[in-house]
Design a protein that fits this description.
The protein is 29% helix and 27% strand. It contains 13 helices and 23 strands. Strand 12 and strand 13 form a beta hairpin. The protein is globular. The protein starts with 7 loop residues before the first helix and ends in a 9-residue tail after the last helix. The structure holds glycyl-adenosine-5'-phosphate. Glycyl-adenosine-5'-phosphate binds next to strand 10, strand 13, strand 16 and helix 9.
Length: 452
Amino acid sequence: MAIDAVSMDKIVSLCRRRGFVFPSSEIYGGLGSTFDYGHYGVLMKNNIKARWFEAMILERDDIVALDSAVILHPRVWEASGHVEGFTDPLVDCRTCKLRFRADKLEDSQCGRKPSKHPGEIPDCDLTEPRQFNLMFETTVGPVQEAGARAYLRPETAQGIFINFKNVLQLARRRPPFGIAQIGKSFRNEITPGNFLFRVREFEQMEMEFFVPPPEAERWYRYWIDERLGWYLRYGLRESRLRVREHGPEERSHYSQGTSDIEYLYPIGWSELEGVANRGDYDLTRHTEFSTTKLEYVGQEGERYVPYVIEPAVSVERIMVALLVDGYDEEVVGERERTVLRLHPQMAPVAAAILPLIAKSEGMVGKARSLYEELRLRHSVEYDDNGAIGRRYRRQDEIGTPWAFTIDEQTLGDDTVTVRDRDSLAQERLPIPGVRAWLDDALDREWKTPKPD
Ligand code: GAP
């Protein structure tokens, strides 16, 4: 396996330089591990969500969409087990005044000696571990009293479970069927970090698939394969993906089986997505706590509580994996270029339209009218600022797969060159065929030229 030139620092720097992601609240000194997304970051996140939504909803008949509230009834989190059990063990260091996850000390750095882990030097004075609940608390209404306490959701899944009955009745579904949701989740992580990998505010994409209990194992395996296939479809290298099954001691309280789809991030193999068999835990608990029966009753009167298979991932973890997998540096004609080899359907900009000479009215006119035509269907960018080589490099760095250049020849024969980001090959196309060419190119299968 080739060693990538990529490090997390290079990804952070490119994201900053090209306006994908900014540290949040920067003019106030920043707020650790929170980020704001700039134009290209938003476009890329929208593509990730759109591809997930296509695979989950538009290409299937058995999954419906939901958008539930962020703040739910506080009893939801008692029923789900989060009030009691959504905790991480925390230790304080009395010397450096920092807090660490007790189970991740070997991944943390001591505040005084950055090369050491907490507890490794005699100065370290760690407290006994205590459990710290990761849910953000808030109050609902103008009075701050115990009865008004609520939480920002730490996962989107519970909004789905509490709507099970609505969907069953109104969407007229019967197991196996799924409910999918994309939305923000919040966790007061003790040790956020590694750029977007572990943040306190993130966008989850979760799907709860309700199945007859005897079919749960088969669907669990099915969803692991489906999700792995989705990553391959969008160009992640197979050698950088693996499935790791949790042992019984590692599983969450609700889980009868969990597998992580892991990606080889610069920090090592880490969880990209989790697929869990949640059994009937959630529907049973919400039935108990709400006294509303959450079960399936068939036409012949058969009744059962479905089991749930859940693929769950954040947009952020996918974004980091795509950026890492796509990042490349190479020397072309004695010049270095940095290029993001993103799947064309994930790239923030599908194509750039570039008049070779910005001062040529003829070229600018042709370029602008092509741009106006393409922007109706795709995210495209017009750029006439600077030397053509610099403009290509700017597009390479944001991962734009194709550039259409309008030059002298265009004025004579109404053709443009199309430059391929990965191979740098150029071919000529008649302008009236560009739109159809781009539609086709975006639909084509794409494989990264990066070695495995
Ligand atoms: N409903 C199940 C659930 O939330 P999880 O393993 O805690 O399970 C699911 O989270 C996914 O959400 C993870 O696989 C990861 O992609 C993402 N995720 C979790 N915590 C995150 C964080 N602090 N920052 C970014 N993504 C996170």
